[in-house]
Amino acid sequence: MLLPLLVLAPLLLAAVAFALPAARLRPRVLLAGAALHAAGVTVLWVRRPGPTLGGWLAVDAPGLLALSTVSVVFLVCAVYVQGYLAVHPERDNRVFVGSLLVLLAAMTAVSLAQHLGLLWVVIELTTLSTAPLIYFKHDALSLEATWKYLMVCSLGIALALLGTFFLALASAGPGGPRSLLVGELVAGGPALSRPWVRAAFVFLLAGYGTKMGLAPFHAWKPDAYGEAPGVLGALLSGGVTNIAFLALVRVLQVCNAAGEGPFARRSMVGIGLLSMMVAVTFIVGQRDVKRLLAYSSVEHMGILALGVGLGGAASAGAFFHMVNNGLAKSVLFLTAGNIQRAFGSKRVDQIRGAARRLPVSGAAFLAGFLAITGSPPFSPFYSELAILDGALGGRRFVVAALFLVLLAAVFVAMGAAVLRVVQGDPGDAPVPAKFRDAALTAGPPLALMLLVLLLGVWVPRRLLDLFQAAASLVGGAP
Amino acid sequence: MPSLTSFLFVLVVVLDLLVLASSRLRGAIRTVALQGALLSPLPVLLATGAHQTIHVIALALGALVVKGLVIPGMMLRAMREASIARELEPIVGFVPSLVAGAIGVVAAFTLSGALPLPIAERHALLVPTALATVWTGLLLVVTRRKAVAQVLGFVVLENGVFVFGLLLSDFMPVMVEAGVLLDLFAAVFVMGIVMFQINREFSSLDTRRLSSLRD
User: Fold this and answer.
1) Per-residue pLDDT reduced to its tens digit, A209-266
2) Residue B211 counted as domain residue
3) Any idea where the domains of chain A sit in the sequence?
4) Which residue of A142, A162, A218 is the best one to mutate when testing the B interface, meaning the one whose CB has the most B CBs within 10 A?
5) How many Cβ contacts (< 8 angstroms) between chains A and B?
6) Residue-wise pLDDT tens for chain B (215 aa)?
């Protein structure tokens, strides 16, 4: 009963938020939803329930990892939203809070979905529910970003549906499972029609790759991340893109079972490296803090694709990195939102001395940058190391070299912009509003940053086992 | 009625090319409406004994109403309310996009020849028609400037996905119906044009104006 409840409870609370006449109470509903969700996910860690609804919903290792990341990031964002909405009392929060809760329900459903048709429907729901959130500022730029986001993602969604149809067709041959349940597809793998599985993979990679923001399907990302509130940037990069990655993992499971694993993994390695390269070219000289983070997200989605593409130890590293990137990128977006409010700008050349004006947010922003670019002792260092290890272990020396060079290039390019923002004296920078660090806006990213540090120092045994279990589903060389 | 079905498939592909070639927005919307209406009887025509009759008829009627009437109707209304100019002004000229469309049709036939169906074939023209229509839709979205024209391309793409889905109606009717959710997107787009008045913000529905965000 717990699994359907995890999806239904946020939906119910979204309805409450839409119906509630008092704007003041709506953020509290959001907080209640986030806390309930976190409690429910904690129960999943203690006692994992079996599949429900005819096997359509189930918890497995990659799903639990993605769901837990979503839950943590959402809880932190829900606390942050209390402070964020207090800064903007003039904006109507009905649609904002309602859409956030629908998004939580949709992301939960994606994490639990074991049926590729259901998976497609709830991924579409994540797209629809984030559109009003990107448009929250109600100005021309956010409208442009929303339009591009919807147009590009809906094309991706349509291609993903076609890919899902291909997969359904592949399962319908003689002896085939005639089903879209991942478990049944994997069990009946040898009976699937291989040419159609391959065609399905191509379309699903393009479709869900768009949602994930892999190059060359990343066109929506810099605009949406740039114009949306920082809290949505955190939810997109820490939640939505992760669960889109999860969707590709499900597809990869089926490809492996059908004997198309090598082709699929080669494609993932290629698109992963391409994403990293495209990200580097746009990070160099980037003058907008949030767009910088967006391209960093393109880079890290590329790292995830690369990791599962390499397989084996690198896959385990990719799942670890999925968690790390979700947490660290959320820190960056939440603090970038604070910095933007304190300086009235998100342009690198107009912000100076963020660490002085916002001691907590500025420091967390700098730490988040160090973490996301793979500096020890933060956790992304260890997950990137695991992916590198996997590449070397599989004797993929060219891939490993490219990976290292691209990581170094991002570190240098991103560092130049971040240090300009954080260091110096803010004396001459404009002071648009009296926005300073407060418990509700600086506390949440700080807590998340400490979690990233903790995961770098100590990873619980249970979590390590989950990475291994998730990696074994994706397959590849050990 | 194999000949009627073949005729419908051929007509759908011809309409693909016609949309690519049309320079007037209203004409293009009507062409896409006609395409949607022509697609709607296909679930009935292709039905085999295994189908539940009610299911098939509901799908056909639903397609006729949504693809043939509601979405095109909304788009024409949006054009009136947002007073959009009728000319299309594509990014890529009509002749090159027509050529690309024709290449797509040839590629669709070649590709579907290379991909043998794992199930009993419903109609030889089904897969090529679907793929050609999907390709046309993608072309339209990429090569048109006006927001309405891009939405139109999305609707054409959807029509292609719908045709392909008919292959599954025997054993996975739920998935075919899930495709209806794509129409939800189209509806959201059109409503978006009217409600958010991209027109007012940008003084025309030209997505070229949606270009302040760039690197």
Assistant:
1) 999 999 899 999 999 999 999 999 999 999 999 999 999 999 999 999 999 999 999 9
2) no
3) 270-478
4) A162
5) 115
6) 568 899 999 999 999 999 998 888 889 999 999 999 999 999 888 887 666 778 888 888 988 998 899 889 888 888 887 766 666 667 777 888 899 999 999 999 999 888 888 887 778 899 999 999 999 999 998 888 778 888 889 999 999 999 999 888 877 777 777 777 777 777 777 767 665 555 444 444 455 556 667 67
Determine the 3-state secondary structure of B205 from DSSP: coil
Residues in chain B whose beta carbon is closer than 8 A to a beta carbon of chain A?
114-119, 134, 137-138, 141, 147, 150, 154, 157-158, 160-161, 164-165, 167-168, 171-172, 174-175, 178-179, 181-182, 184-185, 188-189, 192, 196, 198, 201-202, 207, 210-213, 215
What residue of A is the nearest CA neighbor of B163? A162
B110 within domain boundaries: yes
Residue B52 lies in a domain: yes
Token pair, residue A130, equals 């984030």
Written in H, E and C, the secondary structure of B3-27 is HHHHHHHHHHHHHHHHHHHCCEHHH
Domain range holding B51?
Answer: 2-202
Query: Which of A147, A178, A222 faces B215 most closely, judged by CB atoms?
Result: A222
Chain A, 268-287: which have a CB under 8 Å from a chain B CB?
282, 286
| Chain B contact set for A145 (CB, 8 A) | 213
A117/B174 touch (CB, cutoff 8 Å), yes or no: yes
Dump pLDDT digits (tens) for A314-324. Answer: 999 999 999 99
Instruction: Report how many domains make up chain B.
Output: 1
* Measured distance CA(A66)–CA(A212) in Å, rounded: 13
| Closest Cβ opposite residue B215 in set A165, A170, A282 | A282
Q: Judge: B115–A131 Cβ closer than 8 Å, yes or no.
A: no
The nearest CA of chain A is from the CA of B115 a distance in Å of 6
Q: Report yes or no on B209 lying in a domain.
A: no
Contact B188 A226 (CB under 8 A): no
Q: Do B118 and A117 touch (CB under 8 A)?
A: no
- What ipTM, to 2 d.p.? 0.89
Mark yes or no for CB contact B196/A168 under 8 Å: no
